[in-house]
Design goal:
There is one protein chain. The chain has 365 residues and is α/β, with parallel strands linked by helices. The protein has 15 helices and ten strands. The strands form two sheets. Strands 1-2-10-7-8-9 form a six-stranded mixed β-sheet, with helices on both faces. It has a four-stranded parallel β-sheet with strand order 5-4-3-6. Strand 7, helix 9 and strand 8 form a beta-alpha-beta unit. The longest helix has 17 residues. The protein is globular.
């Protein structure tokens, strides 16, 4: 072939939304082509809500390079760390942050240090951090204990903290709201998402408000966040020392962006509520079997929360004549936590190489 073929038009979210981000011509952009994730119509979720005029979309963040929404913030955090001359990044993680930080650090050619709560991280996520060459250090305690340590280490040693308390993380994550508005032509009426460390609800609201002020995207959405009932400090109004939930990505007892999440809730007229592990697993199964979308358990909290809102009559606040547009962020791919998937299916029976028997097993006549 003569010459160089230009294969990819998309250049990653920093280049796409450069004018909305705190970067300059001198910022070394570290990108894995993150962002540009699909907004998938979910008609069966919509039908389950018991309302005629409603459309539901899933912002499927599991199709980011490392399989979660964390890549949006990490491209910004690591790019700025490199710009500032840092040689290492550090984070506390329940899984997705460690995978993302490690991948982007590897891309940048710098060291990645990850502190994880002992025994509280899905192996699929831990394997990602390890395979990218991160120095992974399990510590006794929960996520909040690990975060306290990395904050202290970043203040004392030459290493850049890349958890969501790093403002550049929020800057990158807000671009998901930009993409939704660009796809729909306006903001949705309601946006539902899981809440763990609360950086994502903070980032989406920041993105919507910034786009609204610049592009007049119609009305701002109502922001509705959902915590797991065993890890619901914002709902309860107090930190939880030992948070519990099957949804490891949101197993956080003292969110770093607690106040900002409350502000997003209050300023949008929305809510932050809790859903049980049973509700999360029910929504998890519903998405895989009815919409063909495979997500990690924490992701399904947004859809579980939407189902709960419908059951509680929340959608009736909108006139019956109005079509409601709802977006649910599903934050990570199902392969992030294969154990949960395996635990919720039965191993198939093995059959002999016999056409009649195999056809019968397949339900063919």
């Amino acid at each position: 072939m003569g010459g160089i073929v230009k294969i990819y038009e998309y250049k990653g979210l920093i280049e796409r939304y450069r004018k909305y981000l705190p970067v300059s011509d001198g910022t070394p952009v570290i990108s894995l082509m993150e962002g540009n994730t699909p907004l998938i119509s979910a008609p069966k979720v919509a039908a389950a809500l018991g309302r005629k005029k409603v459309c539901v979309y899933l912002k499927y963040e599991g199709l980011n390079p490392t399989g979660s929404f964390k890549d949006r913030g990490m491209t910004m955090a690591v790019s700025k760390a490199l710009e500032e001359g840092q040689k290492a990044v550090i984070c506390a993680s329940t899984g997705n942050t460690s995978a993302s930080a490690s991948a982007y650090a590897a891309r940048a050619g710098i060291k990645s240090i990850v502190l994880i709560p002992e025994g509280a991280i899905a192996m699929g996520k831990l394997a990602q951090a390890l395979i990218h060459g991160a120095q992974v250090i399990p510590v006794k305690g929960n996520f909040d204990d690990a975060l306290e340590l990395v904050v202290a280490m970043s203040e004392r040693y030459p290493v850049q903290l890349v958890n969501s308390i790093n403002p550049y993380r929020i800057e990158g994550q807000k671009t998901a709201a930009f993409e939704i508005c660009d796809t729909l032509g306006a903001a949705p009426d309601i946006h539902c998402l899981p809440v763990g460390n609360a950086g994502n609800i903070t980032a989406y609201w920041k993105g919507y408000t910034e786009y609204f002020s610049r592009k007049q995207i119609g009305v701002l959405p109502v922001m509705c966040g959902f915590q797991a009932s065993g890890s619901a400090p914002i709902v309860l109004g107090r930190p939880i020392k030992q948070p519990k939930t099957i949804a490891t990505a949101i197993r956080i007892g003292n969110p770093a962006s607690w106040k900002q999440a409350q502000a997003a809730r209050d300023d949008s007229g929305g809510c932050i509520d809790k859903v049980t592990d049973r509700q999360i697993l029910k929504a998890y199964a519903f998405l895989t079997r009815n919409e063909g979308v495979f997500v990690e358990p924490a992701s399904a909290a947004s859809v579980a929360g939407l189902f709960q809102m419908a059951e509680n009559g929340y959608l009736k606040r909108f006139p019956a004549s109005k079509e409601i547009c709802i977006v649910c962020t599903v934050t990570g791919h199902g392969l992030k936590d294969p154990k949960t998937a395996i635990d919720n299916v039965r191993a198939p029976k093995v059959y002999p190489k016999d056409l009649a028997k195999v056809a019968k097993a397949a339900g063919l006549k």
